[in-house]
Amino acid sequence: MAAPSDARAHLAKAREFFTVAELNLDLELYNVAASDAVISGINSKDAICLRLTGTTAKTENHAAAAAELRTAGGSGPHGSTTKQMATVLGRLLKLKSKSRYQTIDVAHADAAKAVEWAQKMLDGASSVSTRPALVLHLAARSTQGSRERAQRSPLSRLRLER
Q1: Would you tell me which CATH number, out of the four given (2.60.120.620, 1.20.120.330, 3.40.50.2000, 3.20.20.450), belongs to the domain 3-131?
Q2: Are 118 and 40 in contact (CB under 8 A)?
Q3: pLDDT for 67-106, tens place per residue?
Q4: In 10 A of CB 56, how many CB atoms?
Q5: CA 50 to CA 142: how far, in whole Å?
Q6: pLDDT surpasses 60 at 134
Q7: Are 71 and 141 contacting, i.e. CB atoms less than 8 angstroms apart?
Q8: Does the pLDDT value for residue 6 go beyond 80?
Q9: Mean pLDDT of 99-126
Q10: Angle at which helices 30-53 and 3-26 pack, to 10 degrees?
Q11: Any bridge partners for residue 159, and if so which?
């Protein structure tokens, strides 16, 4: 699968898990609501990274996942969005273990916050995924020196994604 279709697939999963998270919150199934919200947030992260960079890492390292999201927007038009979303993802990921593995239950307030954060992640992913975006090719992918990169036209590093 190509990155744009993978991004759409992750966005669809994010919506699906978010919908179930809301339903489970209404049913007072707080552990499940928080867990579904976390999964929605992770899928939103994957959709954003795939849309902006063409790749996404699959990792259990929560700090790495948030860092990947934080840098996905670079200094481009989505840079501030990805930085904000990384903070939200970090909050969500802190509830992953508690909602899925620990014997302590997730409280209503925490589950409600998780659903709220998942909504923010989904909104961010939808915003990034539905707008045509000029994507900055990361200079780190080039083996040429920084002086050469600086001399090239900025337009040579941009491409329009559909």
Answers
A1: 1.20.120.330
A2: yes
A3: 999 999 887 888 888 999 999 999 999 999 899 898 899 9
A4: 23
A5: 19
A6: no
A7: no
A8: yes
A9: 95
A10: 160
A11: 135
Question: How far is Cα 92 from Cα 58, in angstroms, rounded to an integer?
Answer: 17
State how far the Cα of 53 lies from the Cα of 73, in Å rounded to an integer.
8
Q: Are 115 and 21 in contact (CB under 8 A)?
A: yes
Instruction: Supply 63's token pair.
Output: 């700090």
Task: Give the contacts of 58 (CB within 8 A, at least 6 positions apart).
Answer: none
Structure tokens given for 16: 């699906």
Locus of tokens 């990805």: 82
What pLDDT shows up at residue 142? 36
**What is the predicted pLDDT for the residue at 11?**
96
